[in-house]
Write a structure and sequence with these properties.
The chain is of the alpha/beta class. The chain has helices at 2-18, 41-55, 136-146, 152-158, 182-191, 196-212, 229-240, 256-259, 286-291, 311-327, 348-364; strands spanning 68-74, 78-88, 91-100, 108-112, 162-166, 222-227, 246-250, 297-303, 334-339. The protein has a single domain (39-364), classed as Alpha/Beta hydrolase fold, catalytic domain (Rossmann fold), CATH 3.40.50.
Length: 365
């Protein structure tokens, strides 16, 4: 009897370990924090932005040590530097900073790296590693896979932009964690009154402030650009930080209704803890969160063949965004596109369009 019970429990354990677990709860039909035409849009943004900030469970503000430059490398028309940047009372990160040498700085760009379930590198997914780095092969493989073989940070530096990219907790020199350790990381933070998504968002805000304060950065000319999880972080930091005036977000935009369907990544734990703020989805849909950055310039790109971002959710979300930008009389600063043949990628053709958008934006501001 004991053996039979043990086998039964073992079978149940294996079932629950590998089965997709869903609960009979779906996204709400309406969100109480969504903007209504009867509410002054600036008042709505101020109120809901504070709700968003509270949901971060951010570390208490404190005086931090000064950032330190650790290494530098001449790359011809621009200089590469490795910095150690204190970000909060409980965290710091190493970041790569690219500074043009032979021309005035057009604007500054905060690059926010993707997730991709690949933790060995973070900032090197977007900026070429130093000559002696042990991760040059891994970085080249990653940009070949997702960025048409291009280190987009270096391309922007060559065009005259000051560029910054840092490791998010769990990635690169702040890891690497194993895929199945993400949940443990998130649980440890929650157990101490923080959250993985909130700490990441707060750190991005700190990086935006660091970047805006760099010498020779034109006032009011700091943009955020990201792909995949980095796209989520790009519009998020633009919504929450006064130091970011524009954002280009490639392949992370939708509605909760479509992202919490059974089998969607947002409901599977692990990686989703970088994207879920406690209580936020009870008040604001994703488009509401993005709309907190209006009337700043926003360029959203999604792929029509992207299995992670259902197209119908993208279309519905675009409609919600347009209402808020129109309320600001700023329809011209919102650009939304679905590339019908594109998958989950930031390819060369998309990059060219983003660089043109960035050039036009920085000339107008």
């Amino acid at each position: 009897m004991f053996r039979m019970s043990a086998l039964l429990w073992l079978g149940l354990a294996v079932f629950f370990a590998y089965a997709d677990i869903t609960v009979p709860v779906s996204a709400v039909a309406t969100y109480p924090g969504s903007w209504q035409a009867s509410i002054p849009v600036q008042h709505w943004q101020q109120q809901q932005r504070q709700f968003y900030l509270d949901a971060l469970l951010a570390p208490a503000a404190t005086t931090l040590a000064a950032p330190q430059r650790l290494q530098q490398e001449d790359r011809g028309s621009y200089q590469a530097e490795l910095w150690q940047i204190p970000l909060s009372s409980i965290s710091h990160s190493k970041a790569l900073l690219l500074t043009p040498k032979s021309q005035p700085i057009k604007a500054a760009v905060l690059l926010l790296h993707d997730h991709g379930a690949y933790f060995v590198i973070g900032k090197e997914k977007m900026i070429l590693p130093f000559a002696g780095s042990a991760f040059k092969t891994e970085a080249q493989h990653w940009v070949n896979k997702h960025y048409s073989g291009r280190f987009i940070g270096d391309e922007l530096a060559e065009q005259g932009y000051l560029v910054l990219a840092a490791d998010t907790l769990g990635f690169g020199e702040r890891g690497p964690v194993l895929y199945e350790q993400q949940q443990q990381l998130a649980a440890n933070l929650l157990a101490t009154g923080h959250s993985l998504s909130g700490l990441s968002a707060y750190e991005d805000m700190q990086l935006a402030q660091f970047l805006a304060q760099r010498p020779h950065v034109p006032k009011g000319k700091v943009a955020a650009i990201g792909f995949s999880m980095g796209a989520y972080r790009a519009w998020q930091v633009a919504a929450l930080s006064e130091h970011i005036q524009a954002a280009a977000a490639i392949c992370w935009f939708n509605t909760y209704q479509h992202l919490v369907q059974p089998g969607q990544n947002l409901t599977k734990g692990q990686s989703s803890f970088y994207l879920l703020h406690p209580g936020l989805a009870r008040q604001l849909d994703i488009a509401d969160q993005v709309s907190l950055m209006a009337p700043k310039a926003l360029y959203l790109i999604n792929g029509g063949q992207d299995p992670l971002m259902p197209v119908q959710g993208v279309i519905e979300g675009h409609s919600q965004l347009k209402k808020v930008w129109q309320a600001h009389q700023a329809e011209q600063t919102l650009r939304t596109e679905i590339w019908t043949e594109a998958r989950h990628e930031f390819n060369q053709q998309q990059q060219q369009q983003v660089w043109l958008w960035l050039e036009q934006w920085q000339k107008q501001h």
